[in-house]
Design a protein that fits this description.
The complex is a heterodimer. Chain A is an alpha+beta fold. Chain A has 13 helices and ten strands. Helix content of chain A is 39%, strand content 18%. The N and C termini of chain A lie far apart (82 Å). The chains are: A alpha+beta, B alpha+beta. At the A-B interface, helix 5, strand 1, strand 3, strand 5 and strand 6 of A face helix 7, helix 10, helix 12, helix 13 and strand 18 of B.
């Protein structure tokens, strides 16, 4: 190419490009145009390639011209590019048919009892309690006598118990306590409290322990009784643990699980393994008008006909008390040095109150339509 | 127990409303479970804890009310019976009481009242008894019941002439009443008309005339005999008030399955101080309402018990309660509850101490902690402040971590992995019907329950499969199409008569997992491959690598980790399915011992940098006879031991019309890679040719 041809070519490119670019309205033809002019073997590259063949004095000026042309073409193409891509599509609208069912890997569910246990354990973990579990098969000592529950005493009425047929000799329910300890009569624990004995026998205070687990009692099954259910036991032992601490910890717990507006009531009760003993009530979460609780108060539900508290306005949620000195004696602790408190609650009861479940049997029927709600 | 507002007012001046009284009693530990206005009175029902037998009477509750409200307790009205009508010529004027064992009966009193007129009770008496659900019988029986509810001391009235006529044809003037153990197989017909067979663990009342001992006339402390019952023809009565051994009464009551108001109270313990008071109260009422003359009062056994004293360290009150209660207040509370309080003088220590004497009705108070409970109860739990424990973290770590805490974390992880795989957690009963095991062909020794309430609670389950099957069946009945469940629980076995608990995972799959795609609805039926998938993901996530599955039989696949069998996958047998009521369905269940898995779990992670050099993937598609297990093929390929062959994966398989009947089509993807360089085709070709040779040569695979 000589100088003239190059000059003519520069002119024609600068004219043609404007015409050509106007006629373009698709990305594809714009890409073709870009290739035609700016590609590796494109028209402008050809011009640039010819420069070394020119006489030296001409090279500078023409080089500048070609560069300007290149920039012009590039900017035109860029401009066009923007106008094409921002232009709304004029063809038929594309629709995501989002009404179709989603394709998912369905998740399963934890059992509501597991969820409540996890929630309760998490609350106590935050307060420094450790979780410990114990065996479901227990000795009479750990389940009863170690906890200051004499074997032949009316206080045992509350703890009807399943015994195991293990020893070959006939098991005489009325045999005296000493004999029972020797033969080592075994049973299914009727509460989680035996773990108190296990833990205290194995280590010294300070202790802050929470014990979730299954327990068994030969109760006829109905809407509020089950022969198997879950309990959570907790206890703290150290120097200077006081009744006021019991109130503080249990209040923190109840508010964490049922909401901070809950009202609480601590009233005297009797448990063989605590002295003083306490029963803890919360204001009825169904009919108590001031409550803004876990579950919404039911409209029009008056205390008198409340299906949950039956007009009492209070719901028992747990039993507690300062650990009885006899329990400390039984595990070899110095009861003049250490004090502590223990508490126990039924997990099903808490779950029933929290979720508004009215029949304990639902937990063990395992109807997927029930389980999937939690 | 029930009592009424007006009855209570006989003994204490109450200025507050019944509702307020109910609240106060509840907050003092005497829980009022219902309060009902009835016939111009208010009926309270209270739940009395087993440690407070002293509350099992109107007087006992009045005593508590007096303590709470700061009032005085009125005493039970009785006549002075010092001047007994001494009559002669009447039968039985010489009575002997014989207690065979003082341990069984510490006190026995008898009062003989002659010439009573048995008839209906006056209205006020009937009404009070009926308000508390006690049926009116006749004036004598009603009075014994009334006094029982009022004082808490059970009484029994015998027809004296009937006692005599059982042993003598003529009236006699000497009678002996004996408190003794029954003979083996001795019988009595109790007032309720039921014949009871007795034994030597049961305490009875018998009579003796002229060295001749008769049959039992009452089950001591539980119920009287029909033969000596007071009826409208009764003229002369013998009124019994006694204290019997709580354990004996409890055993007899359990043995005979016979509950009564008397037994209930004897079992919990009677205040010896009320026995004679109750007896004179009843005699007074009988004289008033049925006439008659009290001719004889006799007692045997000890009437006075030693009063307990407890030393109370005043500092312990605040040490245990976390609140300072003044000495004055402490004294006032205890005195109000009938305790006698005096300061301990000249005590060697500098501690402030009180010597507290316990009233006879408080058998439950034995330790200073018991006194502190009394103080806190009356002080009011609501008045104790709220605080948080000051556990010193610096002194020692709280509760050293027990190893179970670790497994709890793993269990929680396992549960979350399974939930992520779409499985729903279930909780089933640990007790099952033993017959269920038969359908599952399980013959292990099981732990039986001594006292099940029903057949469904016969044994502790040694396996989890029957419970899962039952849950699957239940949900099929609820028309659930896709059932995928798991449970983590303990199973129970015994070795050498020693029980063992083993933490176990059970998984059950049944039905289909529907998948709606653009190609249409795919109903993906659950198979053992789904279960395998669940377990593989679980093992991988737990850092367990050396696992494999082995076919054991048509219905059972073993699951192994490092060659140890840790569980199995089972295709439920037709019998087992039918037993559970499952028809035309297959169900897959798996039982894995978590206890065995724990030692293989490795949750520590270590970073591996991604491969530096690209690998080359070569696929081989072939058809293989269906009787050749793919496991053996993969194993043979792996045994080629080419270090450059990094992985062998099945990426496609198919069985259907385009493939000969006994064959299946498979595509295996082989990945070759080196850590030192980029591999070339020339390096791989001979290796891959060898792999192909293994397939075609050893397994007659037809490579496509």
């Amino acid at each position: 190419m000589d100088i003239n041809t190059i000059k003519i070519e520069i002119d024609s490119i600068s004219k043609n490009i404007i015409v050509e670019i106007t006629g373009i309205n698709s990305t594809q033809s714009l890409e073709e145009l870009q290739l035609k002019y700016l590609g590796r073997k494109g028209k402008i590259a050809q011009l640039t390639g010819a420069i070394p063949t020119l006489p030296l004095p001409e090279r500078g000026a023409l080089g500048c011209q070609i560069n300007a042309l290149k920039n012009k073409v590039a900017s035109l193409i860029e401009k066009k590019q923007k106008s094409i891509t921002t232009k709304p599509p004029e063809t038929a609208k594309f629709i995501y048919d989002i009404g179709l069912p989603a394709i998912v890997q369905e998740l399963g569910q934890l059992h509501p009892i597991t969820k409540i246990i996890d929630e309760i354990c998490a609350i106590f973990n935050q307060m420094g309690f450790s979780v410990i579990e114990g065996p479901e098969i227990e000795t009479e000592h750990n389940n009863f006598t170690g906890l200051n529950i004499p074997l032949e005493h009316p206080s045992r009425e509350a703890f009807d118990t399943f015994y195991l047929k293990l020893a070959s000799e006939p098991v005489n329910q009325l045999a005296n306590e000493q004999a029972n300890r020797q033969t080592g009569k075994l049973l299914l624990r009727s509460h989680t409290s035996p773990v108190q004995i296990r833990v205290m026998k194995s280590q010294e205070p300070p202790l802050a322990v929470i014990v979730p687990g299954r327990v068994y009692r030969p109760d006829a099954v109905d809407a509020s009784h089950s022969f198997m259910f879950h309990q959570i036991e907790g206890f703290i032992v150290d120097e200077n643990i006081r009744f006021s601490d019991l109130k503080g910890i249990l209040e923190a717990f109840a508010k964490a699980i049922f909401g901070k507006d809950i009202k609480m009531r601590f009233r005297p009760h009797f448990f063989p393994f605590t002295e003083p003993s306490v029963e803890v009530d919360i204001s009825c979460i169904i009919c108590e008008p001031v409550s803004r609780l876990a579950s919404e108060p039911v409209k029009g539900c008056k205390p008198a006909n409340c299906p949950v508290c039956h007009g009492k306005r209070w719901l028992e949620i747990l039993g507690s008390g300062m650990i009885h000195p006899n329990v400390f004696k039984n595990v070899g602790y110095d009861f003049k040095k250490y004090t502590g408190f223990a508490f126990g609650m039924g997990v099903e009861r808490i779950a029933m109150l929290k979720y508004g479940i009215n029949d304990i049997r639902l937990f063990f029927e395992n109807d997927l339509r029930f389980l999937k709600q939690f | 127990m029930k009592f009424t507002y007006n009855w209570l007012k006989d003994f204490v001046d109450i200025k507050i409303s019944p509702q307020m009284l109910a609240d106060k009693l509840t907050m003092a530990g005497l829980e009022v479970t219902s309060l009902e206005e009835k016939e111009g009175d208010f009926v309270f029902e209270v739940e009395i804890t087993s440690n407070r037998p002293d509350w099992l009477s109107v007087v006992g509750i009045a005593r508590e009310v007096a303590a709470i409200t700061g009032k005085k307790l009125a005493s039970v009205p009785v006549c002075q019976l010092s001047s007994l009508s001494r009559q002669t010529g009447k039968p039985v004027n010489r009575l002997t009481l014989n207690i065979e064992d003082r341990k069984d009966c510490s006190l026995y009193t008898a009062t003989i009242i002659n010439d009573v007129k048995v008839g209906p009770s006056p209205d006020w008496l009937k009404k009070r008894l009926e308000l508390i659900d006690c049926r009116s019988v006749n004036n004598i029986v009603d009075i014994t019941n009334y006094v029982l509810f009022e004082t808490g001391e059970p009484l029994h009235a015998f027809d004296l002439d009937k006692i005599v006529s059982l042993l003598a044809s003529e009236p006699v003037n000497r009678l002996e009443i004996i408190v003794k153990r029954a003979l083996k197989n001795e019988e009595i017909i109790t007032i309720d008309g039921i014949k009871r067979i007795l034994d030597e663990n049961i305490l009875i009342i018998a009579s003796n005339i002229n060295q001749q001992t008769g049959k039992p006339i009452a089950l001591a402390g539980i119920m009287g005999g029909k033969d000596t019952e007071v009826t409208e023809n009764t003229k002369n009565i013998l009124l019994e008030a006694a204290i019997f051994s709580p354990i004996l009464i409890r055993r007899a009551r359990q043995k005979l399955a016979l509950q009564s108001e008397s037994a209930y109270r004897f079992e919990r313990g009677i205040d010896s101080a009320t026995v004679e008071k109750a007896s004179s109260r009843a005699a007074t009422l009988i004289n008033e309402l049925a006439g008659g003359n009290t001719v004889l009062i006799k007692s045997a056994g000890k009437t006075q018990v030693k009063r307990k004293t407890i030393i109370l360290d005043v500092a312990d009150v605040s040490r245990i309660l976390g609140v300072n209660i003044t000495m004055v207040k402490i004294k006032k509370i205890l005195t109000g509850l009938d305790f006698k309080v005096c300061p301990v003088k000249n005590s060697k220590s500098l501690k402030k101490q009180l010597e507290v004497t316990v009233p006879s009705h408080r058998s439950d108070v034995n330790l200073s902690e018991d006194l502190i409970e009394e103080i806190s109860r009356i002080f009011g739990y609501e008045n104790i402040p709220v605080s948080l424990p000051k556990i010193s973290l610096a002194r020692n770590e709280i509760c050293p971590k027990p190893n179970l805490y670790g497994t709890r974390g793993i269990i929680s992880l396992v549960k979350n992995i399974l939930v992520g795989l779409g499985l729903n957690e279930v909780i089933t009963y640990s007790l099952i019907d033993k017959d269920l095991l038969r359908d599952f062909n399980i013959n292990t020794e099981t732990i039986e329950i001594l006292n099940p309430l029903s057949k469904e609670q016969e044994i502790l389950r040694p396996v989890i499969l029957p419970s899962l099957t039952k849950t699957i069946a239940y949900n099929l009945n609820q028309k659930q199409e896709s059932i995928s469940i798991f449970e983590i629980t303990k199973i129970f076995s015994k070795t050498q008569n020693q029980p063992k608990e083993e933490l176990t995972l059970g998984i059950g799959l049944c039905g289909t997992r529907p998948l709606l795609l653009e190609q249409g609805l795919i109903k993906n039926e659950f198979s053992f491959l789904h279960l395998k998938g669940v377990l593989e993901v679980l093992f991988e996530r737990l850092g367990i690598q050396e696992y494999d599955f082995n076919t054991e039989s048509e219905s059972s696949i073993s699951v192994n980790i490092c060659k140890e069998k840790i569980g199995l996958i089972t295709n439920l047998s037709k019998e087992a399915l039918e037993q559970a009521g499952i028809k035309n369905k297959k169900a897959w269940v798996s039982q894995i011992s978590l206890e065995k898995i724990f030692k293989y779990v490795n949750l520590t992670k270590k970073f591996l940098s991604p491969p530096k050099y690209p690998g080359i993937t070569r696929d081989i598609s072939f058809i293989l006879k269906t009787d050749i297990e793919i496991n053996t093929v993969l194993k043979a390929m792996r045994e080629s031991n080419f270090t450059l062959l990094r992985s062998i994966r099945i990426v496609d398989y198919y069985k259907g019309p385009q493939i000969p009947a006994d064959y299946r089509s498979l595509t295996i993807s082989c990945l070759y890679r080196s850590d030192e360089r980029t591999l070339t085709e020339e390096e791989i070709n001979p290796l891959h040719a060898e792999i192909r040779n293994i397939l075609s040569g050893r397994f007659s695979a037809k490579i496509r």
